[in-house]
Design a protein that fits this description.
three-stranded antiparallel beta sheet, 2 domains, 1 helix, mainly beta, five-stranded antiparallel beta sheet, 45% strand, elongated
Length: 204
């Protein structure tokens, strides 16, 4: 004779099975269900699946959202830990790689190249001058700085990829000779400088 299994026992078994799944995912540092209950996040989710050094990920829990980042050359990696909370770990990138924008990337062994031009090439005292710096790198650019008249603070453009451009418009400038240059930096913090160049501002 078949005997029916009590409904209460079935429900209990379902809850136990669900708890085992959540605990196993928690311990593995993977994705934990990220439910919202009453407007409050009660789970944890890591969109790069745990400690993936080559993917910039975000981890979300009931306290907020945390994004992987670099600090002093070290990767700060967030993933789901115990109690459904995002935890940070300090990771050194493998040999031949460096930390850049929250992920490990191939180390850059060659400095970038950079050039700079101005327009107009023969400015007057009423001219606005556009400085155009063009940089390239074999792996990844980080930023381009443009200096005018040896300024302590340059005009800075964030750069990315292997080729990028930085535009800066300044002036008018006083009559006479003025200096300018550009510096490109790659993700390995190697730099390249155009060297000092000059333009002359005339009265008309």
């Amino acid at each position: 004779m078949n005997r029916a299994v009590p409904t209460s026992l079935v429900i209990l078994l379902v809850f136990i099975a669900a708890g085992i799944v959540i605990i196993s995912q928690n311990l593995s540092g993977g994705i934990i269900p990220n439910e919202i209950a009453g407007g409050v996040r009660v789970g944890c989710a890591d969109n790069d699946g745990g400690s993936d050094l080559y993917t910039k990920g975000t981890c979300s829990d009931r306290f907020g959202t945390f994004t992987d980042y670099c600090a002093a050359g070290t990767l700060i990696e967030y993933n789901c830990g115990i109690n459904n909370k995002c935890t940070a770990s300090y990771q050194s990138c493998p040999q031949g790689n460096v930390c850049s924008d929250g992920t490990c990337v191939q180390a850059n062994n060659n400095p970038p190249t950079v050039s700079i031009t101005i327009s107009p090439t023969k400015p007057t005292i009423s001219s606005q001058i556009t400085f155009t710096a063009i940089a390239s790198d074999d792996v990844e650019l980080r930023q381009i700085d443009i200096y005018v008249d040896n300024a302590d603070t340059p005009y800075t453009c964030s750069a990315s990829g292997t080729y990028d451009t930085c535009l800066y418009t300044g002036g008018p400038y006083s009559i006479g000779l003025h200096s300018f240059n550009a510096i490109a930096t790659d993700t390995s913090y190697q730099t390249s400088d155009t060297g000092t160049m000059y333009f002359n501002v005339s009265a008309s």
